[in-house]
Design a protein that fits this description.
Helices cover about 55% and strands about 10% of the residues. It is α+β, with helices and mostly antiparallel strands and about 200 residues long.
Length: about 200
């Protein structure tokens, strides 16, 4: 059972990534429970001295898949590609009834953040190559091929960059990062056609 299945089957919404992060900061492990009509991330831990496991969760949570819910929450906060890569790297797979260690939650979030920063850097470099206002080398090449070697007015260059910024932002929010040169080239050609 994955969280997507359970949330659609029961009309309930999975908790956000911050709920996992907060519970992981306070407890040894986290587990998803159902509190009335809402999913809640609760902590589990070990009693000092005795070593007995204590769960601050409600009965009946043995079929709830905390790991899938966490991966789903990662996908809501980061791109689908990043969340899949983190899940694969940390071997996060459906595991109904089992809590997820706080160390794994923290490590997964850090990996996703680092991955997002790295991809943003790659996309930033690509974006510079295609910048109209900055006269990026790919912009110059494509503009020349399109017969615009005499150049465009300053406001037209700004519109081209605005169009590209929007396309880059849409692609990144849809998890299509890093942006390929082929996509950036296609978008630039489209923007140049619109600016004529």
């Amino acid at each position: 059972m994955t969280i997507e299945q359970s949330s659609s089957a029961y009309g309930r919404i999975a908790p956000p990534l911050d709920a996992f992060r907060s519970a992981a900061q306070q407890h040894d492990a986290v587990q998803l429970t159902l509190d009335g009509e809402q999913w809640q991330v609760q902590g589990t831990g070990v009693l000092p001295g005795s070593g007995r496991k204590v769960a601050w969760v409600s009965p009946g949570s043995d079929q709830v898949d905390t790991t899938s819910a966490f991966v789903h929450a990662l996908g809501q906060s980061f791109s689908a590609g990043i969340s899949r890569a983190v899940a694969r790297e940390l071997d996060l797979h459906p595991d109904p009834g089992q809590p997820l260690s706080s160390r794994t939650v923290t490590h997964a979030i850090e990996m996703a953040q680092h991955g997002q920063q790295a991809l943003s850097g790659v996309d930033f470099f690509t974006r510079l190559q295609f910048s109209a206002a900055s006269g990026g080398p790919e912009f110059k090449r494509i503009a020349t091929e399109a017969g615009l070697s005499s150049g465009l007015q300053k406001d037209a260059l700004a519109r081209v960059d605005q169009f590209l910024d929007q396309k880059f932002a849409e692609a990144q929010s849809n998890g299509a990062s890093p942006i390929t040169y082929r996509d950036a080239e296609r978008w630039l050609k489209e923007a140049l056609n619109l600016s004529r």
